[in-house]
Amino acid sequence: MSNWSDLTGEPIFGISLTLGAYVLALRLNRRWKWLHPLFACTGVLIVLLLAADIPYESYSEGGDLITFFLGPTTVALAVPLYKSLLSMRKHLKAVAIGVTLGSVAGLCVSSLIVMAFGGSKELLVTLLPKSVTTPIAIELSRQLGGSPQLTGVFTVLTGLLGSMFGPALLKLFRIRSDLAIGAAVGTSAHGIGTGRLARESEAQAGISGFAMSLAGMIMSILGIPLAIWLS
User: Fold this and answer.
1) Torsion of the alpha carbons at 159, 160, 166 and 168, rounded to the nearest 10
2) For the chain, which residues make up each domain, given as ranges?
3) CA–CA gap between residue 115 and residue 120 (Å, rounded)
């Protein structure tokens, strides 16, 4: 028993478990295209940790190392963004307006949901930044007086659901333009949605990366009047 505890406490255990679960998730994604690998990977990890009675603290010794590389990975999205800039120059104004309206709409929908169910002020500020990339969302939640941990959960869920169903929903409404798809997914599903598009279309991923970055800046600016209004 002691040997098992020592093994699970090593960083290499969390890394190996995560990579193994992700490989399995990719295979599931090949069979069911709508199933996002991150969603499947998370589910597999939860089941394995519960079944083997492994404390999260032990897993996080290695899992946190993978989280550390999220920053450099996000920077890599600048490559498809740079390649898309030339074709996007003529439409920058339209994209900027669309991302701004999308960000404001996301705030309004979140507010309506919380108010409709009689949620508290803390829940409201926790949910408001859910559509921007996780580091920005968590920091905004902290400054507004929300729960950063819960904001992280809402943000990841938003990205997963947006990446799983967003492209299909856009196709259902016969939206085929790379510009429109990239802007919509980047605004609503941040980095997770952008990662999904990167596996299918470099052009869409570049536009989505731009929309994601712009949405983060817009949300940060909107955080100032929100902080005044909620104080």
Assistant:
1) 160
2) 2-68, 78-230
3) 8
